[in-house]
Amino acid sequence: VQLQASGGGLVQPGGSLRLSCAASGRIFSIDVMGWYRQAPGKQRELVARITSGGSTNYADSVKGRFTISRDNAKNTVYLQMNSLKPEDTAVYYCSVLTPQFNNYWGQGTQVTVSS
Which of 1, 66, 74, 97 is in Cβ range 3.0-4.6 Å of 32 for a Cys bridge? Predict the structure, then answer.
């Protein structure tokens, strides 16, 4: 199973980015899809996650600014990030959890918010 993340980059404060992550390989169903991030010197933290039924959870720091969504037919999860702040700067990782409790991670994509 491979997870390919894309969409990171450099953006000014207040700007927007959209991350995408597509799962491929021998994966027949996905339960939870999520985004995590890790800033330099900090632990990896949950940003947002979405279940197969569409239920979502967000970190308090991103509520109202970020939106997670998924396309089950494409095994793809998205993260729309608006009103970005310098403290959102981190490497963002996508993750999927199967009904068999197999957990897979993407390679990470850098998001830098700076003027």
Answer: 97
